[in-house]
Amino acid sequence: MRVVLLGAPGAGKGTQCKRIVAQYGLLHLSSGDILRQERAAGTELGRKAQSYMDSGALVPDELIVEMMAAAISKAPGGGYVLDGFPRTANQAEQLDKSLAERGQKIDVVLNLEVNDETVARRITGRRSCPQCGAVYHVENMKPKLEGKCDYEGADLVQRPDDSLEVVMNRLKTYHDQTRPVVNYYKKNATVYDIDADKDVDEIEALIFERLDACASVQG
Ligand code: AP5
Known about the structure:
Layout: E1 2-7, H1 13-24, E2 27-30, H2 31-41, H3 44-55, H4 61-73, E3 80-83, H5 89-101, E4 108-113, H6 116-124, E5 126-128, E6 135-137, H7 164-188, E7 191-195, H8 200-218
Parallel strand pairs: 1-3, 1-4, 2-3, 4-7
Antiparallel strand pairs: 5-6
Helix pairs in contact: 1-8, 2-3, 4-5, 6-7
Bound molecules: BIS(adenosine)-5'-pentaphosphate (AP5).
């Protein structure tokens, strides 16, 4: 199954992707995570992406499309869930084109819908483990011991682009450049809108219902 998970920053894409991966055995391909790995490794791509990410702007399409095409080409046959990509209508068109060349297509698009106030609350309260990447929230998903990862015991950190100022820019970027991707897919694929202003388990149930239906059609 090839799945695209769309949604505003902080909609819960990463949180739900971990659950989708555990349930369906798909590969999780997050453009944001790959970019952060490139930055940490000090690659040319990571250096080029840095200023865009820090300001809440999008990294140019040509860099992203090439990076994600490489990641997708290494994915095993069982399928994948794309998180944070595509993020412009142009990226979506390029993705469809490269899949079509291999006789493939996106099977289902899940669009997490959440209001801007929820986004601001979720993102500014997000903390993560620098060692294992586990994600917490200071109010909604607290670690067992304040400020420490449940698995590694490491001090939790805040992403540099999770300040309120940058979140506002990321939201504007989302409304201007990424919302059109939903309209693109509504014309070209099967899209399900999911109310993501709910509890994590309730959202998971809505997503699994859709993915179970998709998996049964595929046999
Ligand atoms: P990226 O890393 O993709 O960031 P994003 O899309 O802004 O998404 P986030 O990771 O912030 O949020 P999420 O939806 O995964 O939420 P999460 O589950 O963590 O991109 C970063 C940057 O990279 C971009 O700004 C851009 O510069 C660049 N980039 C990436 N892809 C690109 C592309 N394709 N093209 C160009 N540039 C690109 O949840 C958030 C918090 O809320 C957590 O604390 C979580 O615990 C909590 N939470 C989650 N769900 C719930 C819930 N239901 N109830 C309560 N709390 C919840």
